[in-house]
Design brief:
Length: about 170
């Protein structure tokens, strides 16, 4: 799961302030991500029936950037819309949809998990741990525990789990 935005952050210029600029960019990124996580997890959702909106159906979603997915989660949570994961696959950041209170899944959908990276490249140990915790808090307790112990340890390949197994971990079936 890539934690960067699509827009590239300009590199800090060389010179004595380069280290400070890099530190501030990293700090700003961490604060912005933490704020998105708080908004995503703490925003109250309307009951699904009260929204009058059709369900948000997810089909064959292979993931994307973490920050963009956190924004999508915040919007879906605020809308109270039912989320139905029904495709063949839900990989990477798609799995974060499991955190929404109105989500149900197909037992046939295959979910793919991996550790946080920067476009497939390893992060520093501190960033790896930080983003692993952000990701894990979007999973039910049993899946959270598995992810922190095992699932986050792969970067280039996925751990794949059938929806039927995730249903046994507490996520409702559609």
């Amino acid at each position: 799961m890539d934690h960067r935005e699509n827009a590239a952050i300009p590199a800090a210029k060389s010179g004595p302030t380069r280290g400070i600029k890099t530190y501030l960019l990293n700090l700003g990124e961490a604060i912005a991500t933490l704020a998105l996580v708080a908004l995503t997890l703490l925003s109250p959702a309307e009951p699904a029936a009260a929204t009058g909106q059709p369900p948000y159906v997810v089909r064959d979603d292979r993931g994307g950037f973490l920050r963009e997915r956190l924004i999508e989660l915040r919007e879906l949570r605020a809308s109270g819309r039912q989320v139905e994961i029904r495709g063949r696959v839900c990989y990477s950041t798609c799995t974060l949809l499991l955190s929404l209170p109105n989500t149900c899944i197909s037992p046939r959908t295959q979910f793919g998990f991996h550790g946080p990276s920067e476009s497939g490249h390893p992060l520093s140990p501190e960033k790896f741990d930080y983003y692993s915790h952000i990701i894990a808090q979007h999973y039910p307790a049993k899946l959270n525990q598995w992810y922190m112990q095992t699932g986050r340890k792969r970067i280039k390949r996925l751990f794949k789990i059938k929806g039927s197994e995730i249903i046994r971990m507490g996520v409702p079936a559609c």
